[in-house]
Amino acid sequence: MNYDHTLDKRQLRIAFERAAASYDQAAVLQREVCNRMLSRLDYIKFSPNAILDAGSGTGYGSRKLAMRYPASRILAVDIALAMLLQARASVAWWKKWLPIPGNRSDYVCSDMERLPLKETCIDMIWSNLALQWCNDLKSTFAEAYRVLRSEGLFMFSTFGPDTLKELRHAFQSVDDYQHTSRFTDMHDIGDLLVHNGFATPVMDMEYITLTYDDVEQVMRDLKMIGAHNVTQGRRRSLTGKNAWRQAVNQYETLRQEGKLPATFEVIYGHAWKPQSRKAVLTPETRRQIGLE
Q: Which CATH number fits domain 3-160+183-207+265-272: 3.40.50.150, 3.30.2350.10, 3.40.50.2300, 3.30.450.20?
């Protein structure tokens, strides 16, 4: 295992706690991907009673799900308490103007890799751009499988390996430290779903490129959404002026039509927990087998 890519969960929680107040201002991509995920639900006939929003952030996805499924109970789970407090405040304001009878939202501060939930209590797990913050996708998927009821839906988006490739390229000529998180390939994610018992996984991917005036703006947006580099292999000291200038100059070689690109490989997926297959013996199918 390459521990350089292992996420420091304590630092991850601190980063998102600090970013809670500024998150909505900068989370343009997160909202866009969430909306694209929601549009995919138009082709899935499903009426969940209990929905888990895993990695819920400030609650944009939870609010959208509550509008789509007004009779459902929404359970928002996030590793950062400040994010959940921000989400709860937004819901309180939102319900004053658009009350939805029967809908209920609850909040749990927890790591989605270890859910404090009993088995088979959730009908649908929704996770928008949060799986990339998990160290062990295999165990994360096992947790999702554990808490889902039979015939439950697991729907998610995450980032693929080409995410922030420009930033990674810019720093490769500067030092040997890890400057971005590790992102898992779409095919490996699909294999992990099958390995953990999920049925009929559907996977697809698209590239979304944001453009910026300068490198500082790229870094500022990442900081505002809490997307710091918290890998074990990150540089522990500040990047020197010469190294930073070298990285900026390298990034500048990618400028097109006056703008700097920041590419995100967005992976979408959904899969079902199959119905439990237990043998049922009836008088017609039961056989008597002699001991001899």
A: 3.40.50.150
